[in-house]
Specification:
Strand order of the largest sheet: 8-11-9-10
CATH class of the largest domain: Mainly Alpha
Shape: globular
CATH topology of the largest domain: Hypothetical protein af1432
Distance between the termini: 24 Å
CATH superfamily of the largest domain: Hypothetical protein af1432
Helix content: 40-55%
Radius of gyration: 23 Å
Structural class: alpha+beta
Number of strands: 11
CATH architecture of the largest domain: Orthogonal Bundle
Strand content: 5-15%
Bound molecules: fe (ii) ion
Length: 457
Amino acid sequence: MILWIVVLFSSYLRENLNSLRILESNREIKMSTKTSKYIPVDTKHLKLNTILDFDIFIQTGNNFVLFRKQDLPFTEETLNNLAANKVNTIFVSEEDREKIGGYCRPIENRDNINIPDKCLTAPFDNPENLEKYYKTYINYYPIERGNLLPGSRIDFNVYNKSNLDVELYVGPDIGNNLAGIVPNDIHNAQTAITIHKDDIPLYKEYINNLSLELTKSKNDSSDLQFSILRENSKFIIKDILEDPRSGETIQKASELVETLTDTILDNQSNFSSLLKITSHDYYTYTHSLNVCSLSIGLGTNLNLKRDPDLLELGLGALLHDLGKCTIDLRVLNKPGKLTEEEFKEVQGHVTAAGELLVSSNTEIPKNAMFTILQHHEKMSGKGYPQKLKGDQIHINGRIGAIVDFYDALTTERPYKKAFSPFEAFKLLSKFQDDYDKELIKRFIVMLGKQAQLERQN
Ligand SMILES: [Fe+2]
């Protein structure tokens, strides 16, 4: 399977290299008519053999000319061409600031993912923008468009969201007759939407009513059912992470894992719908839900028993990042490089979770604890906190490590773009010495099957 993916990728790259040669031979360089500003990027920060999703410009005198169109690879040959023309700095349009930020910093080591960080361009180098980013991140709660029914009434404001700001989209504050009515075209757009955190109770009520309506009307839209389950799961996980010492934590988490496990067992062919989180933001609760669902899915494919194996695996996966609630949000979601101290603080979330559960006298099955304590260990012994190797890592820890890695790669973060599943598989196979090879294969096959079934439906 891994070989198949690598072969597929090579042929894709070959095809694109051909188009690059044609472009270069024609010297398709033209004057830019854009009036926007340009961001300088040192060529040494650009990653070789990657597909750029933004245009590259070079400066000649006071003008910026288009050198390379987007969607073409940046290769050693391209770099040599630039060097031969004494070009050490390329320029990217201000409009593509977020893209270059994500491109240059594909993954930071805070996830313990061993990918070289070749570029130092930060997406938020302006302190005002950084403050705006934190304010939006902390005060707003991302929701999914799919959960708002066209024509239904809402008592809360919904905002369109960019990385930095929000803009009122629909809700009572619009101030006309249709103010609180969800527009018919709500599902057409792809941009992220969000609500103010103070409106979460109103949104919860809306979701509950939607769920009741769905039951009453015997509507069997599994997509909407999954979407409601996902939204309710996020509320529960958010509550757990905000008050992990509460005596009800494990009770609430166990009940949720039972629901998720039964849903996955009943819908083995389409449970990936549970993962369709379209939010462009990373929050620990969405990551925890994804890691939990994917771990149960993989466990199901390994024919693990529901009780206790899948339930324990799911519980550990749901709570795997519990220790992150002890980390300052500004560090956890910092859209830039972490200092060494901050990096250590983030890594400390594993032991923090263990201490938190012990101090709150919370009893948790041993097999669930393995995922919490070992999901950053690596088969090669290069992980943390204990630098365990191979069989010293419990299967639940090994599953947690693969799934955590995959979800970190495929989720957008302020300092990196979201990788496609294909790119994530490629990286998984590249770092296969760090992960259980057999489990990687089973995981890829499982997701491949889901994708195939999704295409058929
Ligand atoms: Fe973690």
